[in-house]
Amino acid sequence: MKNILCIGAGYVGGPTMAVIAKHCPEYRVELVDVNAERIAAWQTDRLPIFEPGLFETIQLVRGRNLFFYTDVEDRIDRADILFVSVNTPTKTFGQGAGRAADLQYWEQTARLIARRSTRPKIVVEKSTLPVRTAEAMEAILSASGGRVHFEVVSNPEFLAEGSALRDLEKPDRVLIGAHSTPTGRQALQELVDIYAHWVPRERILTTDLWSSELAKLAANAMLAQRVSSINAVAALCERTGANIAEVSRAVGMDHRIGAEFLRAGLGFGGSCFRKDILHLAYLCESSGLPEAARYWEEVLRMNEYQKERFVKTMVRMMFNTLAGKRIAVLGFAFKPGTSDTRDSPALAVCKLLLDERARLAISDPRALDSAREDLKGRAECSFTSDPYEAARGAHAIALLTAWPEYRELDFRRIFDAMEKPAFLFDGWNFLDHAALEKIGFHLYRVGAAAAD
After folding, report:
1. Highest-confidence range of 103-107, 110-114, 202-206, by mean pLDDT?
2. What DSSP state is assigned to residue 191?
3. Quick one: 252 and 165 in the same domain?
4. 227 and 85 housed in the same domain
């Protein structure tokens, strides 16, 4: 039985190892993390992250061939294949602050692998990294004096939170990059053989190491660019009387463009898009391409503008002041189907509302604990799992995450319990607007005329 070890038990490492363990029972799969609380949660019925289908998969493999540990150093040398899935946030200090990738945790892990290994290993880059980071990994690993051979392979994740299990079980593609040396090709084939247990061979794409690293950043940047582009069009729709839903439908039917990521709303969030575009822009600038860097930075600026514009519309429609007014916030996760609030559009909107001295009653079916942590110390915020309680006495509702259950709410009951006039700001064009207007709501929807 070969041993797979994954360092980092977060949103990528956890689901990925669970699916590998499910389809590859002949492998022993170990998930390690220095966060003891997180590791303990993986071994309970209350997992540290929410993903549809994840709990059921974990139940199948936990204790069979998937195991969880905190003793990272002791586990390294037992592994034949070692996935590195540690955090690579944006730097907050020094050169490249606010843009470049902070690789300190990644480097610490690489040094730990080199120090604790006595036999050959395949080291798999699973974290999102700048192009040619594998070169630095190899330099650190080879500093062990050549006593152990390490083969570095790139295998970036293309998971969307809320559908991570589906993306793992039926991926558009699995990307594996390696050196074209005999040992590089052998390591690449080892990874191909793992994924081939359940992924059709034609969906397993093999490339050189550098192309694999860059493809992940490029994919996220392209997706984020589409979100910012359609939101720029939505702003124009509000000024001209065009309908953003119809524009998106017409544009998306062009097979050269497609319908994905052409939904106007509050913009993109989560742990990847902003971070990866910043890293890509920094790579462009440090490579002597300032114009390309500015292009990608404008995608981010458009994303921030969309949230600012949403709050400005709220202020304008609510008689140019939100001071002291109760706003019921429906949804805080960065998108439905996850408990993750990292870089959530809802968090940004809430902070802007607090700047206007509004009082917020925040509700979310999955992310309420994270919301409390993100807004800790803000006395103007209250938190409840009951959206009806959040709306009681509110001057307005701001729908900030498009959870499906919000479509099932009794909005007549909500309207009756609110201050009048009652406003509803649909940040995702998600609800039945005709029915809401019939009830009596003063309604705003992104990309519709009569906003700002």
Report:
1. 202-206
2. H
3. no
4. no
